[in-house]
Specification:
4-stranded parallel β-sheet
Length: 224
């Protein structure tokens, strides 16, 4: 039987990219999704994950376990701190797609620029970097940069303007002496081909996250 992962999402976007990247490494991997776009809406409205958001994510983790998943992957930084608690209610390991990126940020230094288009993404991402830094005896200094105009452009149906605004912001951060620039949303991976001129280490959870997931899957025992 093929190994099996279940991906928890708050958006339907870019599924194909993730599937293609994982399948290139593990061709027979079974990949299922549980997607609830209302999670992000509710967190944005409240400013933090509500009890109802945590309850729904708990149900999704338990459903993934019942589906027979060998690994559960949370791909949304906004609800990352809820995902931290899911390991306690399921026998299936829960992985956060952005944790390997946070570890790379800590390795890069202590002065980190953290950029996002949603305010609810910044806090969990910063706290994760700071937590890993403390574990390694490092005091992290993360500066948050909210690019709200980019989100507004995307929401109005103009992804090209969204990308342009973000790339302009990242190039400005490149001039400010940071040890690394962390792109706090996995969707920002689309910008990377056009940012090869950026000299500061530019971190995105897509590659580091999926590489980590693939490594964990490869370490799982074969299923009969």
């Amino acid at each position: 039987m093929p190994k099996h992962i279940c991906i928890l999402q708050t958006s339907f976007a870019k599924r194909e990219d993730s599937i293609a990247y994982l399948k290139e490494r593990i061709p027979d991997l079974r990949i299922d999704f549980i997607t609830d776009s209302s999670l992000l809406t509710d967190v944005r409205a409240a400013g933090h994950p509500t009890e109802d958001v945590e309850a729904r994510m708990t149900l999704y983790a338990l459903a993934a376990e019942k589906m027979g998943a060998d690994l559960i992957v949370n791909t949304c930084s906004t609800v990352g701190e809820v995902a931290d608690r899911l390991d306690k209610i399921t026998r299936v390991p829960v992985v956060k797609i952005d944790e390997p990126m946070a570890r790379l940020a800590v390795q890069a230094g202590t002065k980190i620029a953290l950029i996002a288009t949603l305010p609810t993404t910044l806090g969990p991402s910063r706290r994760q970097i700071e937590k890993i830094g403390r574990e390694q005896g490092k005091e992290m200094h993360c500066e948050e940069f909210l690019d709200q105009p980019a989100w507004e452009a995307l929401s109005s149906g103009d992804p090209a303007l969204h990308n342009k605004i973000l790339m302009q912001s990242i190039r400005k951060l490149d001039e400010q002496g940071f040890d690394a620039i962390v792109m706090a949303q996995i969707s920002m991976r689309a910008l990377l081909p056009d940012l090869k001129d950026v000299k500061t280490p530019l971190l995105c959870s897509f590659y580091s996250g999926w590489d980590h997931v693939a490594e964990l899957v490869e370490q799982l025992p074969e299923k009969e």
